[in-house]
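Appendix B, example 12.
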Amino acid sequence: MTADSPIKPVITLSGVGKAFGATKVLQEINLDVKQGEVLVLIGASGSGKSTVLRIMAGLETADSGEVWVDDVPLHDARRAKEIRGRVGMVFQQFNLFPHKTALGNVTLALIKARKMTPDEAKRRAMAALERVGLAERAGHYPSQLSGGQQQRVAIARSLAVEPRIMFFDEATSALDPELVGEVTEVMRGLARDGMTMVVVTHEMGFARKTADRVVFMDKGVIAEQGEPEAFFTHPRQERTRQFLHRVLDH
């Protein structure tokens, strides 16, 4: 994907600001995400990266600026709800219902929110579980699944509504190190399939191998962005170099 690609952005943030009380967490954020692009947001805790993601996903409201996601103006409170069903969100915590099987967790929203018949919902849910490599675990409860498997069920739950954009907020940070790979492999598969994805992560290997573009946030601003190879090998800003030095050495 080239920088001069004529593809229209599916996400546009223009002059976005956000404060929590007296703390200004985002300042004048301008950012586009193209159809099919994998954008990875990195930065230290408190840099504002998760707030940007949550604003794009419609989970937080910007205090200033404009936010367009799939042609929906999220800055217009009357229209913001139109984004539901067009985006999928995967959090650090799996948020699965312990009393429901993997299949039950995935079908729930399809039946309740999408008003599908149980048979329709089951077909859609099984296809989503197949996509994350868990079809054979459909009848298992969360307590019978590893953390990585639970997170893959959470991804299947988001995929089942057939979103146009997927958001991942630290989707692997609650996992034991040996389980991270199975989740990032599913995310890489989605990227190969052309899913538009915005990912907040500490996994620099994922950012380097899978992102089309890496955005480094620092103190509420976009400090630097670029294609992964150039970003990681020749960062232009001193604060980017310091951040990468810390996380890659660690």
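The first strand starts at residue 9 and ends at 20. Helices lie at 49-56, 102-112, 118-131, 147-159, 177-192, 204-210, 228-233, 238-249.
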